[in-house]
Amino acid sequence: MNADIDHYAFGSPLDHARPSLLASRSPRAARVFARILGVGFALVVLALVFAPWRQSVAGQGRVIAYAPLERQQVIEAPIEGRVSTWHVQEGERVRAGDVIAEISDNDPEILARIERERNAVLAQAIAAEGAVEVAEAKIAALQLAREAKGMSAELRVDMSRNRFDAAEQAVSAAAAAERTASLNLERQRALFDEGLTSKRQVELAQMEFETKQAEHGRARASLTAAKREVGALGADREHVGADASASIEEARASLRKAESELAKATAEVQKIDSRQARQQRMSIEAPRDGTILRIIAKQDAQMLKPGDPVAVFVPELTASAVELWVDGKDGPLITPGRHVRLQFQGWPAVQFVGWPSAAVGTFPGVVEFVDATADEHGRFRVVVSPAGGDEPWPDAHWLRQGVRVNGWILLDTVRLGFELWRQFNGFPPVVEPLAMDGAGKEGT
After folding, report:
1. d(CA 276, CA 266)
2. pTM higher than 0.90, yes or no?
3. How far is CA 391 from CA 347, 361, 369, 398, in A?
4. Which segments cross the bilayer (predicted)?
5. How confident is the model at residue 48 (pLDDT cuts 50, 70, 90)?
6. Architecture of domain 111-278
7. Domain segments of the chain: what residues?
């Protein structure tokens, strides 16, 4: 110390005048070390400014089952009744098909009543089926009768037309005979006037003419009658066809009614069969392998309706996933395939946000999808699955559904200085734009 004082004493007159100041000065080695430390700190800060920094989006969530069928679900009552017996306790593991509870109905004769109701409706269905068969047979018979009556009426019309043709020919023949008799009468009268024939011949010719004239009149009357008969039989043919068609339509209406009754009875039988099948299932079975989480229905104290909750069931987990909730402003930055670091509750971990490779105790994951819409709080749900590789997630026996999770969704790498500047100014993280196809769109 004295040597240092002597050394400093020759520095300046002020030092010589105030030796106490010399005694309180830092040693030279300390000052040199401080300068080196300051320069080193400045260099470290400068290096950190240009050091790489991995941006991330933080979120909190929980462990879930990736398959919706393996998530927590409610077992419902299949029928109306009361829980008479519980075969399980809360927290007990069950296998698919194991009976977990039995239900009894208030009416002990319910199955017998349903059976009687089914028999009555089944009888109605059989009767309706018989009515359908009768209606179908009646329609077939009426169709045959319509064909037969139509053929008969057509034959009668044809016969009347033949008689009409014969009457026309008879009229023509009678007219010819009348003209012949008229000529013969005129000839006999001329001969009588010349005295070449007797009056008897004239009278016979007159009689023959009148006979032929009368026959001509009868032939015309027969022709008129034949013509009217043709019209009448034609109208009768149409009437027969209309009556037969009306009878067939009436029978078809009866058939449709019988078919409707048959369909109604058949549907009622199916409903009763379904109700009977449900009523016969007086037991509630486990839908899958899993654990009874909570018993809801009270034994012998609560009346249940079909669909009422009976117990809460957690299926056995085969594929775990994590759902993270992130702030709405970060939702558009997250895309499927992004890497994630996860910290599970109960597993000690240290996560270096900017340097994920230096993290300890965290597990890797990959973003599967992001919900298309936010929840009522403006947050987006991100579903993360295991990334595989050398860092598998804990076994499902330990990593149960509902375990709380902290997650960091990794984005792009920037400089630490830029990240500090971004944080100070409140700018969003940097995300590389997605490659887009098509003319006028951004490409890779």
Report:
1. 15
2. no
3. 14, 10, 21, 16
4. 32-53
5. low
6. Orthogonal Bundle (1.10)
7. 1-48, 50-66+319-444, 70-105+282-315, 111-278
